[in-house]
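Page 42, continued from yesterday. The earlier attempt failed because a stray header line got pasted into the input along with the sequence. Redoing it now with the clean sequence only.
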Amino acid sequence: ILIILGVLAGVLLHVTKADHSKYVPKFTDKLFFYCLLPPIILESAYSLYDRYFFMNVISILIYAVVGTLINVALIGGSLFACSALKFFQNKVPFAEILLFATLISAVDPVAVLAIFQEIKVNKPLYFLVFGESLLNDAVVITVYNVVSVFTGPKDLNVVDILKAIVSFVIVSIGGFTFGCIMGAITSIITKYTKGVRVMEPLLVILLAYVAYCGAELFHFSGIISIIGCGLIQAEYARHNVSRKSYTATKYITQTLSSIADTIIFIFLGIVLIRDNHYWDTSFVLLTTIFCVVYRFAGVFLLTFLLNLSRKNEISIAHQVIMAYGGLRGAIAFSLCITMSDTVNHESISMFTTTTLVVILFTVFVLGSTTKPIVRCLRVKTQTTGTLDAFMEIHDKVLNESINGVESVTGQRSLNYWVLRAKRFNEIYVKRYLIRNHSATSKALKETYDKIFKEGMISKMTTSDFYNKMKSVQREMQMNEDYGAIDSIPNITIANGHANNGSKVHPSIVTRSESVEGNVFKRNGTANLTARVNTISRFKATLILQPEDLSPNTKRPPSPSNNSNIFFKRS
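This time it went through. Structure tokens are written below.
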């Protein structure tokens, strides 16, 4: 849709014969790297924080780093060989071809995220593809900045390539370290912002931007830095800020990311319609073929090697979807537009035309056929919240059981070191980065939230919940403390009645004080909107009969004759 809107904007400027330089600012490298790129990467980094990402982080890193370098080498080598054999109209220097091969290897995480969220593929596959696409961009931009230094009249030699490899390693490690430090600083500062909640979203986003700019200032990778900062903020700082601040931060970054993507695709449409394109049929077709073929070859090769050591092998169906997820988009286009002046002008025009064709092909052809391919291969989609809840408990019990068996047998597998790292994090790290941290209480709270907010309670609709209020007189025992519910759309409580006609039992109306959100009051009328999946904010005991759950909710067999299901939170 963004591409179509950008094309329409370009057509409008072309038809009106308006000088777009008067209405649209010039797309420069500074505009892209310091204004448009940071919010896109930060929003993706926040989305990356999930246990399925960390469970597959080794595989994701191999796909992102090794796979990207393989694509760059194969595409660059193939295009240079074709140029040497005079398949193209003009001979292109190796340094320029390598620079183009680098930028055309950039996979767009926003496009991948949009398509895979619509399809609702299972989470392991989702984070394999999404994590690889995001880290792929980090690798591509880092390699691009390194290779661009060597473009010009001088030909690349072995020493230059070795320097580029060393520089890539240094800027990557340095950028990630700097980002983690800034994330830790964010967590420490937010420990003391309880009295100024309104500043928390601004503080978190600002420090993430400082992580990006600071890394660039020290000639490290800013994109890797902001990814590291975002992951640390999601792990620690989110526990220090209020729920409203966390929600505000999330939606602000999403909004800024969407605005940045929209601006980039508007420029893409203008360039597609207005610019004079240098068309080389052989170069365009061969580049498109190489991008698709080497993407599939790289995924299948690396997956074969990874499956030799993985307990849960990546299936052929998942490999096909991962290869299909190599969509090009905003990052590749932006890097091409901001290409260094040291590159030949005709080469830049040819690279721009080819990049636009590859983007349109991958987005409209590969992207539009992904959903039918998923159905054809019968790829599992995301499970229900209830099943996720029980899987959460099952995984914790199983991991601890495996750890116990390993302790008895004296063996040390990856699971042992993962649990040791988690315990070290809970006991020694979080106590300094999270306000009033208690390892036990935090673990219980996080597990509770995953089970009930994302599981059973989230499956109850608002109408189901309020229609059952009359029949659960003794099932919600409010204590003498105050309780509050955050907003629920479409349901308003007034004088014990909901606006849908159902009667609310007066026992839920209790004494209240000044708290966040709208609250019930014992006397008088109180209008309330609330969200069921934040029910854990009640200081109450909530008992639900099995029939109070939605009909589609599956439940395990009761261990006793008592059929009540208890959800207790104090």
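Notes: Residues 158-190 form the longest helix (33 residues).
Reminder to self: strip header lines before submitting.
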